[in-house]
Amino acid sequence: MIMDKKSKKSNRLNVEKIIPGLLLLTAIISVLTTLGIVFTLIFETFTFFDRVSLKEFFTAQKWYPFSETSASYGIMPLISGTLKVTGIAALVAVPIGLATAIYLSEYASEKTRRIIKPILEVLAGIPTIVYGFFALTFVTPILRSFIPSLEIFNALSPGIVVGIMITPMIASLSEDAMSSVPNSIKEGAFALGATKLETAIKVILPAAISGIMASIVLALSRAIGETMIVSVAGGSTPNLSTDVTSSIQTMTAYIVQVSTGDAGYGTTIYYSIYAVGMMLFLFTLAMNLFAQFISRKFREEY
């Protein structure tokens, strides 16, 4: 009996010694994977800029990499398409997501919350390719009944559907931030005669602003990086304009187009996907850094 206890204790100690090493190994693998991705992007991007000047990349108004006679590599039309979709998605997702978060946090009963939260999680788990065909075959025909000039491939339809896709992220994270506000603050507002709506808008939202802003920025980062919805419903026509009714091409959609085999290995078109990928990486990195800055700047300590 004594030997069994000693053996179990020894095994427990061995496990305790092994676990930190395994956790360190997984952390190192994660860091090395990230560094590998970044260095690959940087190396291949430099190869692209050996062939295309930085001036052309950032100032040219056209993106025609497949032209055999007059290829142009101006990134601005792709950025324009990406920002149009992201802007429309923000107009859809932010008000709906915040309204949902306020309802779940301040108005919904526990039973209702247990029903709605899983539905939001299911909505967030739908494959993006399904959203893409939903935008193309359902949303676009409905919009064309109101906007006859709307093309089959356009920025408006995928923008709306991307907004629907990121709404659960804003709603869930914002609801968590609002639920973490101490009850004493809510009770103080009620004691001063504030209504439930006034408490939610004027007290809870400002108190949870750091988490709410972070959720919005992270959701918009997800919208910038969205691939399949814009590839299916947005089209493949890069153009630098504010028109949301015509075909567009985003940075992610261009990467998909070239990755399907339209360009041979080692060509300028092939290396262009790394330059576009680097721009996309910098966009999302800037958004994540901005989210962290917002969280630190507006965080309230209770």
Q: What order do the strands of the largest sheet run in, or round the barrel if closed?
A: 1-2
- Tell me the fraction of residues in β-strands, as a range: under 5%
Please report the number of helical segments. Answer: 12
**Topology pattern, helix = H, strand = E:** HHEEHHHHHHHHHH
Shape: globular
Structure summary, number of beta strands: 2
Provide the residue-averaged pLDDT: 83
The level of helicity is over 70%
Low-confidence stretches: none
What is the distance, rounded to the nearest whole angstrom, between the alpha carbons of the first and last residues? 52 Å
Helix-and-strand structural type: mainly alpha
Cα gyration radius (Å) = 24 Å
Most strands sheet: 2 strands, antiparallel
